[in-house]
Specification:
The complex is a heterodimer. By secondary structure, chain A is an alpha+beta fold. Chain A has five helices and ten strands; from the N terminus they run H-H-H-H-E-E-E-E-E-E-E-E-E-E-H. The longest helix of chain A has 32 residues. By secondary structure, chain B is mainly α. The longest helix of chain B has 37 residues. The chains are: A alpha+beta, B mainly alpha. The structure holds protoporphyrin IX containing FE and copper (II) ion (CU) (2 copies).
């Protein structure tokens, strides 16, 4: 009796793993009647051009590992239930099976290679596009790795965007600086240079599915193309005690509005400049 | 000769030779030589085990504080808050939080898992399972344990250091870890941290040399390589990984130390500005006027060149223990012994060419990232082969639901989860999003906690009778198992969801961000599970100490197992075996047709 209770309890315990495991994923993605809204946690809204590809790849892998998960855990539960039963006879005396080994080596290798090769396109798009000068929409775009819209500087514990002067320089006096709030044009492939003044940081905007470390000593070109809106910018690499509050905000605004914002900033800069000069006189 | 049924104390274990032997030794060497400065591999293994378990409690406490902060950020910690943080008004400060997760990771990896797997069980099992009287170099072995003491000393100095302790994470990425002004709290603490790590390395190195030599040279007659239990394969391969990878970490650690104290600038680029002060060495030391000229990514490469193999050091022996324990309690030979061995070797070999998967977003050349992606995805293959072979072993088995078996089964079940989530992170575009989020935290806790720690628990329950000659209590063991299993999943499973929602790790107060605000209730629930998980371990503590003194005495072979350690008295005396051993067959002859019982020891001549 005690044996039976133990066997059934163990079976149920291990059975809960695949059942609750799958339920948790489904429930989190589709909260409602079967999953409380407060415990729902799933991808934030996706607003960049390559974001959907990342989500698709995630889901492709989710399906493949999900099926593997259910199958392997299922077999485990079955073994626990069925072969945990007390029997008079001895266990199946087997040291293995060559054919089976071949099958379960070959099949996963093919699946894994499929997973590996299906990543290449998206990776190239995220990492190389800004160097190649051709964006997914077929255009060359207004910005490139050589001629970026802005530099984003990370330092303990803030973000600072610097917009090039009209001739594309970052070291002139006409560079516009904006701390915390970063403005970029919507539906435009934006390229920027990511830099750090002190330690490592990472530029992470969850809704863009974009994360890139900022490394002191390196200038890293990063690109994205996003829809209108304003989004949390989060530091994703430990950078000291204030890491948790190293926030910023990326404002993606219509192109014409962005041009106007830039012009306003420039005006403000010039007028400040002349004021200063006047005072100096 | 009939096998002693597992429920009865076997008369064999109290064999006169064994008793006399132990007794005799006791008179010859005093308490200090026997238990403190011992060269006996079993005692050294015990020393590592008790040290590791004590640090497990410490690491667990640090985790509880982390979970408190994540559930109730900046709220007063009840009771102990008054003791710990009188100056901040009983709340965790941001600096303290950074120290908490840094020390939690450091303690768990370098002072718990590695010492328990290789130090405790490597020491205890290797000579016993291959039929050797002791390690090849007993004195070196003793020094291996004593090298842990300076490590512990420096670790504790780090805790006590002014300003709040090491604060660069267990990965210690520069420049945060090298420029003292970037993390004011860790001024001397980070230096102590590096010294602690170096001493752990010295200890591991002494152990690894010993294990490899002992396995290579001291096997009993007839114990060929392919007759070795998988635990020995796992421990041996882990030792080889240590031998090849550890020098790199040691060298990198010294470089970081030099950067900190001598301003060498191996990892420091030129033109840093920290707190509005230039830290370029040309500015700092105008006389020498040397620009730093180093690179932060160099550390990442060196660190992960060690630490990726290190994660396999933390799992390959665990896989071996799980295999052995499953075979014994399933009464069935391991399915595909050679594929199991080859996949351990495959994991170890591939393990050296995947380190870059920790650096996909680091700014490393993306083409190199693509290569690391393919090698990383392929390393899931040997892991998969092992899972299939464990399932093959269970198919047609006669499972005995003992506590060690429950933990070994749980190891398989949990390792599946951890291995599968690895694939997401290996996929570079996906990792761009999930890197450094809670999905990574879920992944490595499934492999290291629900994997390796469960295997360690299985091993303790399984080999306890050999270590101390007494059984652990099965009822308490099962209570411990059910709660631990449930709460472990309660803690770590939903972290996948947090990661999918983009929640960053190492973030003291995520809820101030708009997109993370809704994650607080989930984190609170996780924290309750964590507190329960910690509290539940009381069943283990009671069981362990009660059984140590009052557990049921057992004979040599309470589980009716085949491998050599069960031929020695329980506990084995000095020199381990009281009779000449000869090995006639592989380690997993269960339920074979040659004999009436369902097990055929390796030493039995037919
Ligand atoms: C199935 C094979 C595995 C694959 C494909 C895999 C893949 C990965 C990848 C790609 C990462 C980096 C994730 C990121 O930072 O974005 C990672 C992290 C990690 N893995 Fe695995 N892994 C596997 C098995 C294991 C095992 C067996 C262990 C340990 C026993 C382990 C321990 C860790 C740890 C500790 C980290 C996090 C390190 C840190 O950033 O603090 N992994 N894994
Ligand atoms: Cu940060
Ligand atoms: Cu790794």
């Amino acid at each position: 009796m005690k044996e039976l209770v133990l066997r059934i309890a163990t079976t149920i315990l291990f059975l809960l793993v695949p059942i609750l495991g799958v339920w948790t994923f489904v429930g989190s993605a589709y909260p409602g009647k079967w999953w409380p809204e407060v415990y729902a946690a799933w991808f934030p809204e996706n607003v960049s051009t390559y974001g959907p590809k990342i989500d698709q790849l995630f889901n492709l892998i989710l399906w493949m590992v999900g099926i593997t998960f259910v199958l392997t855990e299922g077999i485990l539960v079955w073994c626990i239930f069925w072969y945990g039963k007390p029997r008079k006879s001895k266990a199946w005396f087997s040291h293995g099976n060559h054919k089976l080994e071949l099958i379960w080596t070959a099949v996963p290798s093919v699946l894994l290679l499929i997973i590996a090769f299906s990543q290449m396109g998206a990776w190239a798009e995220i990492k190389f596009t800004s160097h190649m000068g051709k964006f997914p929409d077929g255009t060359e775009g207004p910005y490139s790795a050589e001629q970026p819209l802005m530099e984003v500087y990370a330092s303990q514990f803030d973000w600072r965007a610097r917009y090039a002067d009209p001739s594309g320089n970052f070291d002139g006096v006409d560079v516009i600086e904006s701390a915390y709030d970063i403005y970029v044009p919507a539906d435009t492939p934006v390229v920027f240079h990511l830099k750090s003044r002190d330690v490592l940081h990472a530029f992470f905007v969850p809704q863009f599915r974009l994360k890139q470390d900022a490394v002191p000593g390196l200038t890293i070109p990063v690109w994205f193309q996003a829809e209108e809106g304003s989004y949390d910018l989060i530091c994703a690499e430990l950078c000291g005690w204030g890491h948790y509050k190293m926030a910023g905000r990326v404002h993606v605004i219509p192109k014409d509005e962005f041009e106007r914002w830039l012009a306003d900033q420039r005006d403000a800069l010039y007028s400040n400049g002349t004021d200063d000069l006047a005072e100096a006189d | 000769m009939n096998p002693p049924p597992s429920a009865e104390p076997a008369p064999l274990g109290l064999a006169p030779e064994g008793t006399v032997h132990v007794h005799h030794e006791h008179h010859e060497i005093g308490f200090i030589r026997k238990y403190i400065f011992s060269t006996d591999h079993k005692v050294i293994g015990m020393q590592f085990m008790f040290t590791g378990l004590i640090f497990l409690v410490l690491g667990g406490l640090l985790a509880m504080a982390i979970r408190w902060q994540l559930a109730f950020p900046w709220q007063e910690m009840p009771v102990i808050g008054r003791l710990l943080f009188p100056e901040t008004g009983r709340v965790v400060s941001p600096e303290y939080y950074t120290m908490l997760f840094t020390m939690h990771g450091t303690v768990m990896i370098f002072f718990v898992i590695i010492p328990l797997l290789t130090g405790a069980f490597g020491n205890f099992l290797i000579p016993l399972m291959i039929g050797a009287p002791d390690m090849a170099f007993p004195k070196l072995n003793m020094m291996g344990y004593w090298a842990m003491l300076p490590a512990i000393f420096f670790l504790m100095l780090g805790f006590g250091a002014e300003g709040g302790g090491p604060a660069a994470g267990w990965t210690a990425y520069p420049p945060l870890s090298t420029i003292t002004s970037a993390a004011p709290g860790s001024a001397s603490a980070q230096t102590y941290w590096l010294l602690a790590l170096t001493w752990v390395g010295v200890s591991s190195m002494m152990g690894a040399v010993n294990y490899v030599t002992t396995i290579a040279k001291m096997r009993a007659p007839g114990m060929t390589l392919y007759r070795m239990p998988l635990s020995i394969w796992g421990l041996g391969v882990a030792a080889i990984l240590q031998l090849f990878a550890l020098p790199v970490l040691t060298a990198a650690g010294f470089m970081q130390l030099f950067d900190r104290v001598l301003h060498t600038g191996f990892f420091t680029p030129t033109n840093l500005v920290v707190n509005n002060v230039g830290v370029d060495y040309a500015v700092a030391n105008p006389e020498t006027a040397t620009a730093a000229g180093g690179h932060p990514l160099l550390w990442q490469h060196l660190f992960w060149f060690y630490s990726h193999p290190a994660v396999y050091i933390m799992v390959v022996p665990a896989m071996g223990f799980a295999s052995d324990i499953i075979a014994v309690h399933a009464r069935k030979p391991i399915f595909g012994y050679k594929p199991m061995v080859y996949s351990i070797a495959g994991i170890a070999g591939l393990g050296f060419i995947v380190w870059g998967h920790h650096m996909f977003t680091s700014g490393m050349n993306p083409t190199v990232g693509m290569v690391f992606m393919v090698s990383t995805i392929m390393i899931a293959l040997p892991s998969a082969i092992k899972v299939f072979n464990w399932l093959g072993t269970l198919w047609g088995a006669r499972i005995r639901f003992t506590t060690p078996m429950l933990y070994a089964l749980a190891f398989v079940s949990m390792f599946i989860i951890g291995g599968l989530s690895g694939i997401w992170m290996a996929a570079t575009p996906v990792d761009v999003y999930i890197h450094d989020t809670y999905i990574v935290v879920a992944h490595f806790h499934y492999v290291v906690f629900a994997g390796s720690v469960f295997a360690i628990l299985a091993a303790i329950y399984h080999w306890f009778p050999k270590m101390f000659g007494r059984m652990m209590n099965e009822t308490l063991g099962k209570i411990h198992f059910f709660g631990t299993f449930i709460f472990t999943n309660g803690v770590f499973y939903m972290m996948h969801q947090l990661g999918i929602a983009g929640l960053m790790r190492r973030t003291a107060d995520p809820y101030s961000y708009e997109i993370y605000a809704h994650l607080q209730p989930l984190n609170e629930a996780i924290s309750y599970c964590a507190f329960a998980l910690f509290a539940w371990q009381i069943f283990f503590v009671i069981n362990f100490f009660h059984s140590l003194f009052w557990g049921r005495r057992v004979g040599r072979n309470p589980w009716q197992a085949t491998t050599l350690e069960w031929q020695a008295p329980s506990p084995p005396g000095h020199g381990n075996f009281d009779h000449q051993l000869e090995v006639h067959r592989g380690p997993y002859e269960y339920s074979g047709p040659e004999v009436e019982e369902d097990y055929l020891p390796q030493t039995r001549k037919l």
